[in-house]
Each structure stands twice: as C-alpha cells, then as structure tokens.
Write a structure and sequence with these properties.
Number of domains: 1
Structural class: alpha/beta
CATH superfamily: NAD(P)-binding Rossmann-like Domain
CATH architecture: 3-Layer(aba) Sandwich
Helix content: 40-55%
Strand order of the largest sheet: 3-2-1-4-5-6-9
Bound molecules: NADP nicotinamide-adenine-dinucleotide phosphate
Length: 264
C-alpha cells in the first residue's frame, strides 16, 4: 500500500472499456488497485501506465470470473486484504442471440459472470467492509434493468438482479459508512457490443455515450451519495416518480386476503 491511499479498490473487467476507465479515475483519486480480467497482457499494460502516471500501487490478477473456484479465490482475497476499501463489480457480457437462439453454455456463462460472480464478490466485500466500518461497492447494472422489453432478456434480467441487490444492500447498510451504488448506463461505446456480435454504430449517434463520460458521471453520482445513478437520464424527476410509485405499492404487497379481481 502506498502513502496517502484511500485503500485498495478491486475493479473487475479492468482490461478494457468502463473497467479500465474506472481504474484510471480511481488511481488518480489515490486508490491503490487490484485489476481483474482474463487478459493479463492488457491488464499489465494498464497497470504499468497507471503506476508511471500516478505512483499508486497497482496489482493485476488474470482470472476467469465464470469459474467458481477462481471467484472464490478473489472473494477470499477481498476478505483477507486489510487495505481493501472499494469493489467495482464491473465485468459483464451480453449474448450473441436471444435466450431461444443462444448456446446454453453461453447463457450459463452470462449468468455466472453477470450474476453469480458479482454477488459472491459483494458478499465478501460486505463482510470485509462492515468489519472495518467503511468503504464502497459499485455494481454496474444497466438501464435495461428498467426497460426489459428493449433487449435480450437474460442480459437485462442479470442487470435487474444487480439493481435489486444494490437497493437491498444499500437499505441494509444505511446506518453504516459502507456505501452501495448501482450504475445504470445506457448504450456506451465499448467492446461489449462487438464481443456479442452487435454494431454500436447501428444506433442513432445521440443514443450512444462515450465511456469516459459515463464513468465520470457515475463517480459524480457516487460522490453525491446516490444509490442509483443513471448518467443518461436528464430528468431526475422521472426516476423519483418511479421510485415513489414503487414504494407506495409496498404496504399493499403482502396480504391474507386475495385481491378482489382474483376471487372466484
Ligand atoms: N457498454 C455498454 O453499452 C453498457 C451498457 C450498460 C451496462 N454495461 C455494463 O458495464 C460493464 C462493463 O461493460 P463494458 O461495456 O466496459 O464491457 P467490455 O468493454 O466488453 O469489457 C468487459 C470487461 O469484462 C472482462 N471480462 C469479460 N469476461 C470475463 C470473464 N469471464 N472473467 C473476467 N473478466 C471478464 C473483460 O476482460 P477480458 O476479456 O480480458 O476478460 C473486460 O475487461 C458490464 O457489466 C456491462 O454489462 C455496459
């Protein structure tokens, strides 16, 4: 650990895209880093650059987060690292086809990477951070958590899972100094599109955010103490109205009586 550090941030999926930008921004904010992805050469090149430019301590760990033993190793490392202070659950993938047309193996990999791994890493982070009394967990969800009709459902469902998990964890930890944030990007220019056989340039240009802008906005939301950050949503009142409607329903969601319209 180097001097003046905010502790160590673990960033998954840090070899490219949003994760690589999080790594850059967090190093410049004085976090030491553990960068995780499969491509060791890319991770090492980024680590060398960040050490050179920021003087922070940057370690890399090449592993496949669809492999349960490798996820368990990383979770153990998070729990045992006294300097650990922030988890960015960023690694994710999308499918080439729909649920009906994709290989079952690819669907299972998506669930392992987008749901199982971030959940188990968040579990390790909550245990570590509540012991130490402060820190943060940032989960990369998606606006598709709110718009499942617009995309392939396994991916959007995995992102809805992370939104729900983040809201629940934030509520459980509200009286502590452990912060939880879900970030909901819209379409953002990264490799995730070509990796799943899609062309981001097929979208109207004004639908697509640049990756630097997305991460800078997400960190501004984190600094502001937001639990949910939706960088493309211009009218914050739309989200607030949605939340208010959901919370207004809450007292009516568990009852002995069957609702009148279902009585036979
Ligand atoms: N870009 C968008 O439009 C958009 C929109 C909404 C939400 N998001 C979410 O934002 C997050 C980052 O996405 P991105 O757009 O930056 O994606 P990306 O450019 O495709 O980068 C994905 C990162 O995850 C890593 N990764 C992929 N499979 C992995 C595995 N099995 N084990 C370990 N690491 C793995 C990749 O590195 P290696 O290949 O080296 O392993 C890479 O570093 C994802 O959770 C995504 O769902 C993105």
């Amino acid at each position: 650990m180097t001097d003046g550090t905010l502790g160590r941030a673990v960033v998954t999926g840090a070899s490219t895209g949003l994760g690589a930008i999080y790594a850059d921004r967090l190093a410049r904010r004085n976090y030491d880093l553990l960068l995780v992805a499969r491509d060791k050469a890319r991770l090492s090149a980024l680590a060398e650059k960040l050490v050179r430019e920021t003087g922070r301590s940057v370690e890399v760990l090449a592993l496949d987060l669809t492999d349960s033993a490798q996820v368990a190793d990383l979770a153990r490392r998070i729990e045992e690292d006294d300097s650990f202070s922030l988890l960015v659950n960023n690694a994710g993938m999308s499918l080439h086809g729909t649920l009906a047309t994709s290989d079952a193996d690819e669907v299972a990999r998506l669930v392992a990477l987008n749901v199982v791994a971030p959940t188990l890493l968040a579990q390790a982070a909550v245990k570590a951070l509540t012991k130490r009394g402060k820190g943060g967990i940032i989960n990369l969800s998606s606006v598709l958590a709110l718009a499942p009709e617009r995309f392939e459902g396994t991916y959007s469902a995995s992102k809805a899972f992370l939104l729900n998990l983040s809201q629940s964890l934030a509520a459980q930890l509200k009286d502590t100094e452990v912060r939880v944030q879900a970030v909901l990007p819209g379409a953002t220019r990264t490799e995730i599109w070509e990796r799943s056989g899609k062309d981001i340039n097929a979208f109207p240009a004004d639908w697509v955010m640049e990756a630097d802008d997305l991460v800078d906005a997400a960190l501004a939301g984190f600094d502001a103490g937001e639990t949910i950050t939706i960088p493309p949503l211009a009218d914050e009142d739309q989200w607030n109205a949605f939340q208010a409607a959901r919370l207004a329903m809450e007292p009516n969601l568990s009852r002995r009586e069957v609702a009148q319209r279902y009585r036979v």
